[in-house]
Design a protein that fits this description.
25% strand; carboxylic ester hydrolase activity; 328 residues; Dienelactone hydrolase family protein; four-stranded mixed β-sheet; AB_hydrolase_fold; alpha/beta; hydrolase; 16 strands; eight-stranded mixed β-sheet
Length: 328
């Protein structure tokens, strides 16, 4: 169930003086070809050409800038869809993030950011894969010609992207598949309906009604595959159809080291779907998979505390992942 594939952190900022200027630690690059522009951003103290390794992060769904400032009812707010603390990035790595089409790196406005039509028209699995593929190739060609390691992490919707990318770009050495389904995203929703029935939140009859309604919705989307003016859970039909490809089909084609990380308390992606991955790897005799479930963590690797607050464990997962990278 991927309506919020990355938790968008929104906090009241008592004082934000420098706004977007505070992110000057990032270098900004463009790839322009065939009337298309791909914008990517690199955290590289010492410059991109000084690094030996490349770490690319593919973030999840949503039409949000990586950083956003806006005013509402006289209060200044800050939002972020970038979960990493840059100080946790190893010194010998260039850390790269890629903007979605029509979405700026940072937005500072009197109103909350609203995506243009360009975002919805271009949002597809194929286009996001193309973006990352071109960025990796551009960096290797122009800045880091012989990287020792190229590590790519895809989180949530980004996990679908990295699974597909792993079948196409042979330069990648390690893949992180985080908080993603093994099966089609469209299979997530029936699983959640059944879980609600089993937990007593729905009767069997109510579950069947919801299931029938869901399948009617799926048929409507499949009959209008390129529609960007029709939405379901905030995403265009085109997006849902394009991201309905089961990641397991791509993951099984990957032969480099693969690290799957999943929070057992994830309420955006059913862990039952993710368990398809180790089952299929075992069934197909593949041994390049490391499969890690974090018992108390949610979709964004947060832990729900008894006082209602959340404790972030993203950096802990990242450190464990990078230790794995160094050993594989």
């Amino acid at each position: 169930m991927k309506f919020w594939l990355f938790s968008y952190l929104l906090v009241f900022a008592i004082s934000v003086n420098s706004q977007c200027n505070q992110f000057k630690m990032y270098e900004h690059f463009k790839i322009i070809e065939h009337n298309d522009t791909i914008n990517y951003h690199a955290f590289t103290p010492g410059g991109l050409i000084s690094k030996q390794n490349l770490l690319v992060f593919i973030h999840g769904s949503g039409a949000r800038p990586f950083f956003e400032f806006f005013t509402e009812k006289g209060k200044k707010y800050r939002g972020s869809s970038m979960p990493f603390k840059v100080e946790s990035i190893p010194n010998d790595y260039a850390f790269v993030i890629i903007s979605k089409k029509g979405i700026p790196f940072c937005s500072d406005s009197e109103e909350e950011f609203k995506a243009s039509d360009a975002y919805h028209v271009n949002l597809s699995l194929q286009y996001r894969v193309l973006q990352v593929d071109k960025v990796i190739n551009d960096i290797v060609k122009n800045y880091i010609p012989k990287p020792k390691k190229i590590v790519v992490i895809g989180h949530s919707e980004g996990s679908d992207v990295v699974a597909k990318l792993g079948t196409l770009n042979s330069k990648i050495t390690h893949i992180g598949f985080w908080s993603g389904s093994g099966n089609s995203q469209l299979y997530d929703f029936p699983l959640f309906i059944r879980k609600d029935v089993l937990q007593g939140k729905l009767t069997e009859e109510e579950g069947l009604v919801q299931m029938d309604s869901l399948f009617t919705q799926y048929k409507a989307m499949m009959n209008d595959k390129d529609a960007v003016d029709k939405k379901w859970y905030g995403h265009a039909y085109k997006r849902w159809v394009n991201f309905s490809e089961p990641p397991i089909k791509n993951l099984l084609q990957i032969n480099i080291p693969l690290y799957v990380a999943m929070g057992a308390k994830d309420t955006s992606v059913p862990i039952e779907s993710t368990y398809l991955i180790p089952v299929e790897f075992i069934r197909n005799g593949k041994e390049n998979l490391t499969f890690k479930v974090y018992p108390n963590l949610d979709h964004s690797f947060n832990e729900q505390l008894v006082d209602g607050k959340k404790k972030r464990h993203w950096n802990n997962v990242f450190v464990e992942f990078m230790n794995w990278v160094n050993k594989n």
